[in-house]
Design brief:
Number of domains: 1
GO biological process, one term: regulation of DNA-templated transcription
GO molecular function: protein dimerization activity
Family: Belongs to the bHLH protein family.
Number of helices: 4
Keywords: Growth regulation, Transcription, Transcription regulation
InterPro entries: HLH_DNA-bd_sf, PRE
Oligomer: single chain
Length: 88
């Protein structure tokens, strides 16, 4: 991976890649619970993809729940006004 492209753009070195993967691994909840051993690059990338997909599902679920809550409230209630204010 190290070296230069023909276009003159600097390629990222193997050392830089390894450091970025280690930083990414440290952000993953599952990795933080395990020992501090470094996982393989492919494993970290797979775990990252799974984690991001789970976050997307969680955001969608919370959005649906919030929409349902707002729909069930009286539009002029104090609670509805607070929620609308928070969403602005």
């Amino acid at each position: 991976m190290s070296g230069r492209r023909a276009s003159g753009l600097k390629m990222i070195t193997d050392e830089e890649t390894n450091e970025l993967i280690y930083k990414l691994q440290s952000l993953l909840p599952e990795s933080r619970r395990r020992s501090t051993n470094r996982a393989s690059t492919s494993k970290v990338l797979k775990e990252t993809c799974i984690y991001i997909k789970n976050l997307h599902r969680e955001v969608d679920d919370l959005s649906d729940r919030l929409s349902n809550l707002i729909e069930s409230m009286d539009r002029n209630s104090a609670q509805a006004e607070i929620i609308r204010g928070l969403l602005r």
